[in-house]
């Protein structure tokens, strides 16, 4: 009954409630005392033992159950992995042991005549399901229990139970995750779809690396991400690391890493998800895969269309304002072959074709993209393991720009752009167990991008312009993962990169009226970067763990930032071929607490990041008809903050989680324009809050409600155009009809809240209420 009033709750009230909830949960769990044994009154003996992993290290917090005829009891292993049950009757019985990150094991126990104490040694093997292994943070398979508490892993079920349709909107349930602008990728221009984490901003180009099974998805020319290129049904889970990741992944991982993990081909099958919604929005996603003998293959694909909505608010609309819609199709084909028992080789190809309208008749863009990859995962016995990847992509991007007249009743074409680009890269990563508690990792990677922006400029005559170049990065890295004590885990990694920009030039030729061509050759430039990271984690007891990390990272400016200008509305942003690389220094510390047999989890993290020479869109001058900006290196950005999260599943079939992030992201230095010092970083809110409540009973139905409250941010560097705060609520209900068949209905922005995504300077609206109905089919049922 209270839901209609959620839209009126202030952001301050919501964030205080979440912080109070998280703080209360942390205090409660820190005071909780685990039950480690069960007492019974009948005569019997003692069953005791120790739980260890395959390296011999103790496993604290393991769930242990003992059964003997009609008797049963449960408890958890202590900090040394030990457990004990008193007064257990009978001569034999069973033990069941489980722990996060490990396969569940069942063992029988037997008591010889007169034996009062039975001792059992339990060795747990790592879990085989992908949800228990994190590879983003460490570039080597690492148990989730050993990674920083701020790292996030979303399973396929998490994604399916999120009402959002687009993949980037699914990930917005992680506080602090956003694209450069607040808009969804279903209507946003591709050049605004870079990732921002922890308030670092994106500037169009992503400040986080996005991968699919180790293959980069960031655009080779601009660094943004095509979120519609990954078929939703092909995803097993998503991993998000929010620390600087350049120590392992190089330039693009300045602010972290997002990795999509594909569904395995075993067990095989077919799954399909199709839906239809308002704004004429059909969507279909398909996956099929399996193995035959030594061979395996999978195919993922999808099609999507939406007529979209008018971006301009009603009071400011003119005759040129039309719906901003999009349509796309994608495909992902993989063929592989097993070599021996554990090695494999594969070939894979992706294709994307998308077209978008940008809100007026003359402003449109389209992209055609193809990518191929060859890979090998080789087990070398005592010599360790070797992972090899080679990939290449090619694409063509078209964009038209216009100037909209005052009153928005006419527009004039100003720029026709064609941007061809290619990228090629490879990586080799070696890893090996060194003893029982240490893993060594070493690697080398290389990538090169080629691209240019070919433009026909139509303002004040006609000029043919072409500007572009080549960029190459070579990096070598090493890492040591070591369990320095039963409850202590240390990760140390470092990387050296050599970045170079070369063969860069701008050619301009006046066409009408004819004029003298000008050819500007830019000098070749190189920079070196050293990116270390150190992470220490301590499992205090079965309920409490903490970690601390320090790191440095860097990002080289993209070819797009160096050589391509663009226009949105009446704001022109110019390129800058003299940009320097960004450098980040940061650190964080976090605490995670679990209780009630894992049904209540809470975590908190404080962090501090500073970027030197960050690339920003700096305002040069403003007139009534045009705002001109240029990409420039600011002096410094400081971004201190805190993250809180709580997940509770105490009531059967019902879970609720909430997350909050505060980040004070501001310009701390800019000698060229001191007026910007102290101002907020553009497009970065200080407060963000998310929650999800889910009731899931397969025999009845599943209901999921998600909310997102985002604080005020500014569209520009001068903080002249505030976008305001907003709260949106999404909901979804689904029901299984039979084996492998499920129907659902979903709505986004359920109360049709009005919020803004950009000011150009005309405000642009965020996604209004949208709803859809759909069906999922999976064979065989999982």
What's a quick, concise take on this entry?
By secondary structure, the protein is mainly beta. The protein has five helices and 46 strands.
What would you note in describing this structure?
The chain has 782 residues and is mainly β. The strands form eight sheets. It has a 22-stranded antiparallel beta barrel. The protein has a five-stranded mixed sheet with strand order 10-15-16-13-14. A four-stranded antiparallel sheet has the order 3-2-5-6, with no helix packed on it. A hairpin with a 5-residue loop joins strand 22 and strand 23. The chain is globular and about 105 Å long. The N terminus is likely disordered.
Question: How would you describe this structure in keywords?
Answer:
5 helices; five-stranded mixed β-sheet; 5% helix; mainly beta; globular; 782 residues; disordered N terminus; 22-stranded antiparallel β-barrel; 46 strands
| Number of DSSP-assigned strands | 46
Major β-sheet annotation: 22 strands, antiparallel, barrel
Task: Assign the structural class, choosing from mainly alpha, mainly beta, alpha/beta, alpha+beta, or little secondary structure.
Answer: mainly beta
Portion of residues within helices: under 10%
* Average predicted local confidence, pLDDT: 88
- Number of helices, where a helix is a run of at least 4 consecutive DSSP H or I residues: 5
Q: Strand-residue fraction?
A: over 45%
Oligomer type: single chain
**Spans where pLDDT lies below 50 across 5 or more residues:** 1-42
Shape: globular
Rg computed from alpha carbons, rounded to a whole number of angstroms: 28 Å
Distance between the termini: 36 Å
């Amino acid at each position: 009954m209270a839901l209609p009033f959620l839209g009126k709750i202030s952001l301050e009230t919501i964030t205080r409630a979440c912080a109070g909830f998280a703080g209360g949960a942390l205090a409660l769990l820190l005071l909780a005392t685990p039950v480690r044994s069960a007492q019974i009154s009948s005569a019997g003996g003692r069953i005791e033992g120790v739980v260890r992993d395959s390296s011999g290290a103790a496993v604290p917090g393991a769930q242990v159950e003992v059964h003997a005829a009609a008797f049963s009891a449960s408890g958890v292993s202590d900090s040394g992995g030990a457990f004990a049950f008193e007064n257990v009757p009978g001569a034999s019985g069973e033990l069941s042991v489980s722990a996060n990150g490990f396969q569940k094991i069942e063992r029988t126990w037997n008591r010889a005549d007169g034996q009062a104490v039975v001792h059992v040694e339990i060795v747990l093997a790592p879990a085989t399901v992908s949800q228990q292994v994190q590879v983003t943070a460490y570039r080597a398979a690492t148990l989730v229990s050993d990674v920083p508490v701020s790292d996030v892993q979303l399973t396929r079920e998490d994604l399916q139970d999120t009402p959002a349709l687009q993949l980037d909107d699914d990930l917005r349930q992680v506080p602090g995750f956003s694209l450069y602008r607040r808009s969804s990728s279903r209507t946003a221009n591709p050049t605004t779809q870079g990732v921002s984490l922890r308030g670092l901003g994106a500037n169009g180009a992503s400040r986080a690396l996005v991968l699919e099974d180790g293959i980069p998805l960031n655009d080779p020319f601009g660094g943004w991400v095509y979120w519609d290129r990954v078929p939703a049904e092909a995803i097993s889970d998503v991993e998000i690391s929010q620390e600087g990741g350049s120590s392992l992944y190089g330039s693009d991982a300045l602010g972290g890493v997002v990795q999509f993990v594909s569904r395995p081909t075993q067990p095989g099958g077919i799954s399909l998800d199709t839906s239809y919604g308002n704004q004429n929005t059909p969507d279909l996603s398909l996956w099929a895969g399996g193995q035959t003998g030594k061979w395996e293959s999978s195919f993922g694909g999808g099609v999507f269309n939406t007529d979209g909505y008018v971006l301009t608010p009603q009071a400011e609309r003119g005759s040129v304002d039309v719906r901003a819609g999009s349509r796309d199709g994608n495909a992902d084909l993989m063929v592989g072959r097993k070599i021996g028992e554990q090695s494999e080789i594969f070939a894979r190809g992706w294709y994307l074709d998308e077209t978008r309208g940008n809100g007026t008749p003359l402003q449109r863009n389209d992209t055609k993209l193809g990518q191929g990859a060859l890979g090998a995962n080789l087990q070398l016995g005592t010599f360790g393991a070797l992972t090899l990847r080679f990939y290449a992509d090619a694409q063509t991007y078209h964009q038209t720009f216009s100037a909209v007249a005052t009153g928005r009743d006419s527009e004039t074409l100003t720029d026709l752009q064609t941007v061809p680009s290619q990228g090629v890269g490879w990586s080799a990563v070696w890893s090996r167990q060194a003893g029982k508690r240490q893993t060594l990792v070493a690697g080398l990677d290389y990538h090169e991008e080629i691209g240019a922006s070919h433009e026909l400029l139509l303002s004040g005559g006609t000029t043919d312009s072409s500007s572009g170049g080549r960029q190459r990065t070579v990096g070598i890295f090493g890492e040591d993962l070591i369990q320095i004590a039963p409850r202590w885990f240390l990760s140390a990694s470092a990387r050296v990169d050599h970045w170079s920009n070369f063969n860069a030039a701008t050619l301009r030729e006046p066409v009408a009226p004819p004029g003298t061509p000008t050819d500007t050759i830019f000098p070749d430039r190189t920079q070196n970067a050293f990116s270390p990271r150190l992470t220490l984690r301590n499992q205090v007891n079965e309920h409490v763990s903490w970690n601390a990390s320090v790191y440095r990272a860097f990002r080289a400016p993209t070819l797009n930032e160096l050589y391509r200008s663009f226009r949105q509305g009446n704001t022109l942003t110019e390129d800058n071929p003299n940009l320097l690389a960004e450098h980040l220094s940061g650190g964080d510390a976090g605490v995670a607490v679990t209780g009630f047999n894992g049904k209540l989890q809470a975590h908190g993290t404080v962090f501090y990041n500073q970027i030197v020479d960050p690339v920003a869109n700096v305002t040069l001058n403003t007139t009534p008809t045009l705002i001109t900006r240029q990409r420039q290196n600011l002096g410094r950005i400081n971004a201190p903050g805190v993250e809180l999260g709580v997940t509770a599943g105490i009531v059967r079939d019902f879970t609720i989680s909430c997350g909050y992030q505060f980040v004070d992201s501001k310009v701390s230095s800019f000698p060229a324009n001191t007026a910007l010092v102290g101002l907020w970083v553009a497009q970065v809110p200080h407060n963000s809050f998310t929650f999800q409540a889910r009731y899931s009973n397969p025999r009845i139905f599943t209901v999921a409600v998600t909310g997102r409250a985002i604080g005020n941010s500014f569209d520009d560097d001068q903080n002249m155009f505030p976008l305001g705060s907003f709260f949106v609520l999404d909901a979804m209900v689904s029901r299984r009809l039979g084996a492998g068949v499920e129907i659902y209905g979903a709505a986004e922005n359920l109360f049709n809240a009005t919020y803004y995504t950009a000011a150009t300077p005309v405000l642009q609206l965020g996604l209004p209420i949208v709803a859809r109905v759909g069906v999922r089919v999976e064979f065989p049922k999982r």
